[in-house]
Amino acid sequence: MSKKKNLRFTIKNRFRGFYPVVIDIESAGFQPKTDALLEIAIVTLKMNKLGWLMIDDTLHFHIIPFKGSIIKAESVAFNKIDPFNPLRGAVSEQNALTNIFKLVKKKINTNNCKKGILVAHNSNFDHKFLMAATKRVKCIKNPFHPFTTFDTAALSGLIFGQTVLAKACQIAGIPFDATQAHSALYDTMQTAYLFCELVNRWKRLGGWPPNISHRQKTDEI
């Protein structure tokens, strides 16, 4: 395989210079500026020399609700998180984001990428909470793209005809334990497996690296 072909099988070239990071956030509501962020997990990714995407490292934190934040009873009842349980081992938003951004920046540099890009299931939710938390922690430079994301719910709807994480995983052949759902670490891991399968399936179908289109081929004849 030539060096030119090898260059195509890199995260940098696969995602236009962006480094994808899978994220899941558990919160105490749906308003990112006012409702508490309670848990965050990330999974970083890597690509082997043949261009197959796979899981790399993980990082997970329970978060202390920021001062003045709102905790909605229906939200914590749903995700089964007790924000004030001392056994959570929760840390501040600043502590969590400092460590997460440090790892993300390391992976960006290692893969010669220019910026991180958030990957999540219904990514708009996680992206807004991450951006709001970053603004509260003003001393940290955010390595993520300010608005572009990869949404596995949308991608799964296209590829598998399902937008629910559990159902998309089931069709993709990825085990999903409903009793562990809504744990940030578990949901992030399953979303990461799903994203890798979506990317790799497109490659197996011949969609990557891009081939000359049928129209182009016709024009050349």
TrEMBL record:
Active-site residues (renumbered): 182 (proton donor/acceptor)
Entry keyword annotation includes DNA-binding: no
GO annotation, cellular component aspect: cytosol
Signal sequence coordinates: none
Cofactor note: Binds two Mg(2+) per subunit. The active form of the enzyme binds two Mg(2+) ions in its active site. The first Mg(2+) forms only one salt bridge with the protein.
InterPro entries xref list: Ribonucl_H, RNase_T, RNaseH-like_sf, RNaseH_sf
Site (Important for substrate binding and specificity): 30, 78, 125, 147
EC top class, as a word: hydrolase
Molecular-function GO terms, alphabetical: 3'-5' exonuclease activity; magnesium ion binding; nucleic acid binding; RNA exonuclease activity, producing 5'-phosphomonoesters
Binding site residues for Mg(2+) 1: 24
Residues that bind Mg(2+) 2: 24, 26, 182, 187
Pfam families: RNase_T (PF00929)
Keywords: Exonuclease, Hydrolase, Magnesium, Metal-binding, Nuclease, tRNA processing
Cofactor: Mg(2+)
Record-listed E.C. numbers: 3.1.13.-
GO BP, sorted A to Z: DNA replication proofreading; tRNA processing
Sequence ranges assigned to domain Exonuclease in this UniProt record: 19-204
Family: Belongs to the RNase T family.
General function of this protein: Trims short 3' overhangs of a variety of RNA species, leaving a one or two nucleotide 3' overhang. Responsible for the end-turnover of tRNA: specifically removes the terminal AMP residue from uncharged tRNA (tRNA-C-C-A). Also appears to be involved in tRNA biosynthesis.
Record note on quaternary structure: Homodimer.
Name the record gives this protein: Ribonuclease T
Source species: Buchnera aphidicola
